[in-house]
């Protein structure tokens, strides 16, 4: 079947753009670390991950890129579909511009 652009990559990239514009920077002041304890998967309870698995993100962009890569690791998409979608930044910028209209009272 045809390979389509990864929704996870696109949505995560757009959200990254919105968060970056809201915060004024893509970089976190303190890295975000997430732990997936050994055996905690709901798909293979008690089996995977074999060891505690740590994810560390230093920016919105890094977190968004990881979301896209997860689709490749799960064999859902090929690399070309998960590369940061060109539309992500544009979608995020458009969403941010619309959000600003609500913040400043000009939404219509």
Order of helices and strands, N to C?
HEEHHH
Reported for the largest beta sheet, the result is: 2 strands, antiparallel
Point out poorly predicted stretches.
none
Shape: globular
- Tally the helices: what do you get? 4
Any idea what the radius of gyration is?
Answer: 17 Å
Q: Give the neighbour order of strands across the main sheet.
A: 1-2
Give me the count of strands.
2
What is the terminal-to-terminal distance?
41 Å
Helix content: 40-55%
Mean pLDDT: 87
Beta percentage is 15-25%
Structure description:
With 108 residues, the protein is of the alpha+beta class. The chain contains 4 helices and 2 strands. It has helices at residues 7-23, 60-73, 79-82, 86-103; strands at 27-36, 53-59. The chain has a two-stranded antiparallel sheet with strand order 1-2. Helix 1 runs antiparallel to helix 2 (60-73) and helix 1 (7-23) packs across helix 4 (86-103). The radius of gyration is 17 Å and the shape is globular. The chain starts with 6 loop residues before the first helix and ends in a 5-residue tail after the last helix. 18% of the residues are buried. The mean pLDDT is 87.
């Amino acid at each position: 079947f045809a390979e389509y652009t990864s929704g996870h990559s696109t949505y995560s990239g757009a959200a990254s753009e919105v968060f970056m514009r809201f915060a004024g920077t893509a970089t976190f002041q303190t890295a975000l670390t997430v732990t997936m304890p050994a055996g905690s998967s709901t798909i293979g309870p008690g089996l995977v991950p074999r060891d505690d698995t740590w994810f560390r993100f230093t920016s919105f962009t890094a977190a968004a890129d990881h979301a896209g890569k997860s689709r490749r690791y799960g064999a859902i998409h090929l690399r070309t579909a998960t590369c940061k979608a060109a539309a992500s930044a544009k979608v995020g910028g458009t969403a941010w511009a619309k959000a600003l209209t609500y913040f400043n009272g000009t939404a219509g």
